[in-house]
Amino acid sequence: MSTAAGLWNRVLPSGWRELPKVVWVLVAARAANRLGAFTLPFLSLVLVQEFGVSVAVAGLLITGFGAATIPSRLLGGRFADRIGRKVTIVIGLVGCAVAQLLVAATSSLVVVAVAVLILGLAFELYEPPSQAIIADVTTPEHRSAAYGLLGAALAGAAVGAGLLAAWIGQFSLRWLFVIDAATCLACALVVLFVLPNAEREVKSEEEPVRARPWRDPGLMAMLAAGTVFAVLYYLITFGVPLTLVERGLSAEQFGLLLALGALTIVLGQPLLAMRKVEQLNDFTAMTIGYLLLGTGLLGYAVATSFTGFVVATVIESVGDLVLLGRAYSVVATLAPEHARGRYMAVFGTSWGAAAVIAPLGGMRLLDLTNGFVFWVTCAAACAALAVAQPFLRRYLSVAPKQELAA
């Protein structure tokens, strides 16, 4: 074995080395798509600058987009279990491409409003089938590694996406949507023609039992915890640039912090390769991850210089690194095999709910208080999640199974 190959095997988590080809192809396709997925942060800017709407109207349109992602997730899960994982991914990616090309080409506010709604309805379709494919082809002991690989690849691609956006945005914001659409279509082609089949693509009309995810108490417990985490994620995204400005720093420095966070997740992968970390069960790993995340948020509470924000970002990003894939691994274990798409979809609605809760509640807290109180409150929520993990593990071991209907 060459020196380079030996080094690669030492830094690569062992769980990654044992993943099937299906996972690697899917991750590569999604990473390529993520490389061009830089339009969403610029959508409000395009609406204001290119279409002349007020900030308030742009906010309403963005809220409509966020609300549309909730049924998008649920449809993605149902389609994944009914018509097939690959077909659903392709439908979602093509839908995103069409919507973004409409945004890039139109000069009509009505058309762009419809395009934003279409984008929201298509935006989450491909998430549940992607997550279900990983659950389909991996064993329980390798699922955390597989979901972690997907998260790390998307984080790495996000660094490149930020650099591309900074360059392309100098010429025209609309070109961002064209390039994002192109990556969506490229990803769809890879999934359709290169991704190996990993499942029985068409389910029979009559399944032996019909899963009802919303009546599964274990899944509802995971959904509650996942929603709190998703709210915290959005609050970090919204709150850090506002806190930078509050403390006399530049909001533009948030872009550097975003890149730093993504790089920390990518470069921190050798940490996951350590035997003691690999052997952690999902709930212990989540306890550690939430404690690290909370420590980083406490860092934001007291940081007064950009260096302080850098340190806090690295700490909270290490927490994200440890958390990567763990919750999805637990949900995949809870789900009946024929209902994994729907389970992943229901769990994923935490992000849609958080997109509404975070700006309405969390941002209100920041407005009424200050950065210190805001971040201490967020850190306390992280601590609560950490404390809850052992109890959640015990609850899931004794919770009644989800209701099934013939």
From TrEMBL:
The keyword Mitochondrion does not apply. Pfam families: MFS_1 (PF07690). It is a multi-pass membrane protein. GO terms for cellular component: plasma membrane. The keyword Transit peptide does not apply. One of its GO terms (molecular function) is transmembrane transporter activity. It is found in: Cell membrane. The chain crosses the membrane at residues 51-71, 83-103, 147-169, 175-198, 219-242, 254-273, 285-303, 309-331, 343-366, 372-392. Signal peptide: none annotated. Keywords: Cell membrane, Membrane, Transmembrane, Transmembrane helix, Transport. Residues 22-396 form the Major facilitator superfamily (MFS) profile domain. This is Predicted arabinose efflux permease, MFS family. The lineage of its organism: Bacteria, Bacillati, Actinomycetota, Actinomycetes, Pseudonocardiales.
